[in-house]
């Protein structure tokens, strides 16, 4: 998989900010990306050493448009653990 297409956006929430303090960062990733693809993309994009990658698929919510229910798409989330001493500056200013 192409490294530039793997990472879609960083997830910046209260919980992900707390995880960032202990060296774990959260990203929305492509649904077809594997853990190895995600690790290589983060190492390439931010010049850090990835120790571990945890992934999960977040199911989309069911919303109502008029009287009809409609389901938002599912998406994949990755929690990336970095080596001690490595940080990603993108999250530090949030």
Task: Compile the SSE list and pairings.
Layout: H1 3-6, E1 7-10, H2 14-21, E2 24-29, H3 35-46, E3 50-58, E4 62-65, E5 68-71, E6 75-82, H4 89-92
Antiparallel strand pairs: 1-2, 2-6, 3-6, 4-5
Note the total helix count. 4
The string of secondary-structure elements, in order, is HEHEHEEEEH
In CATH, the topology is named Alpha-Beta Plaits
Average pLDDT figure: 93
User: Ranges with pLDDT <50 over ≥5 residues?
Assistant: none
Structural category: alpha+beta
CATH architecture: 2-Layer Sandwich
**Name of the CATH class:** Alpha Beta
Strand order of the largest sheet: 1-2-6-3
Total number of distinct structural domains: 1
Q: Identify the overall geometry.
A: globular
**CATH H-level superfamily title:** RRM (RNA recognition motif) domain
Rg calculated over all Cα atoms? 15 Å
Gap between N and C termini: 29 Å
Number of strands: 6
Beta content: 35-45%
Percent of residues in helices: 25-40%
Please describe what this structure looks like.
30% of the residues lie in helices and 37% in strands. The protein is of the alpha+beta class and 94 residues long. It has one domain: RRM (RNA recognition motif) domain (Alpha-Beta Plaits), CATH 3.30.70. A hairpin with a 2-residue loop joins β4 (62-65) and β5.
In short:
With 94 residues, the protein is of the alpha+beta class.
Brief descriptors of the model:
single chain; 4 helices; globular; 94 residues; two-stranded antiparallel sheet; 4-stranded antiparallel β-sheet; Alpha-Beta Plaits
């Amino acid at each position: 998989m192409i490294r530039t297409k793997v990472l879609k956006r960083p997830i910046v929430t209260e919980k992900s900010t707390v995880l960032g303090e202990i060296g774990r960062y959260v990203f929305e990733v492509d649904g077809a990306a594997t853990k190895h693809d995600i690790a290589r993309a983060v190492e390439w994009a931010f010049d850090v050493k990835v120790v571990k990658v945890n992934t999960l698929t977040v199911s989309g919510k069911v919303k109502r448009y008029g009287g009809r229910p409609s389901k938002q798409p599912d998406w994949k989330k990755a929690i990336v653990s970095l080596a001690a001493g490595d940080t990603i500056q993108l999250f530090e200013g949030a």
